Amino acid sequence: MSEPASAVERYRRERKQHFQSERRDWRLSAWTCLLVLVVVGWLLPPTMVLVAGVFGIWLVAGSDSYWIRMIVTAGALFPAFAFEPLAVGYAGMALGWTVLFSVVAHRIAAWRWHFATGRNQFTLWNLAGLIFACGLVFAFVRLASIAYEDSPGPVFFDRVVGTCYLGLCYSVMGFPLLIPPSLRTKKLYWCVGGILLGGIPLALGVLASLVNPMFLLLLPVFLPLIHAAGAFFFWAVLFPMELGGMFASYELPAEETAS
């Protein structure tokens, strides 16, 4: 009996080592991909809105400590101010909207499916992290306001609405990462795809048609193509991050999984 038991134990140990090695490889590729993405964002500041979306999802659902996520995000976005403050201010607002929509979606999903969302207690270290995060937010607001101070009011309002739209799309794309893996069914992905490729373009077309009726015909046709390309890029970055263990693994209670 000892030999089969030892063989099973050896198999489990080898399988665990293989899994850990594979996860390290995916994590290394994810960090490399993020580094390339950030450098491209520095050289081409308009693409920083895509960087902001990725980091927005990671800030909400990442498995690393709050400090690491905040410092890495700040280190990725702040240097781009040397190239184009306007574009980075735009990315900062997109980051804020992404975090806001993702937190709301995460809480609603946790209430609906009854999974844990983290600790209900906090330490002074967590409080210091919150203060640091608020400082980053106010710094982005201040720098963005400097970049926008020469722009007329309607232009700034358009930027706010545009970043709100981007944040909503990013949170929809990243929604599967906000819930336990056991809930990521084909039906869920179909719903996410339907909202992204059908619901949002149609709703935006209806609202824009109040300004120009042609938008009701144009936006539901062209926006799904843009959304599909954006989702492909988005998940090309998030997929190695997920396999590398960079997102928290929320699990359902035992009574939920048993049912």
Automatic annotation (TrEMBL):
Keywords: Membrane, Transmembrane, Transmembrane helix. The chain crosses the membrane at residues 28-59, 66-83, 89-110, 122-148, 160-179, 188-211, 217-239. This is Uncharacterized protein. It comes from Blastopirellula marina.
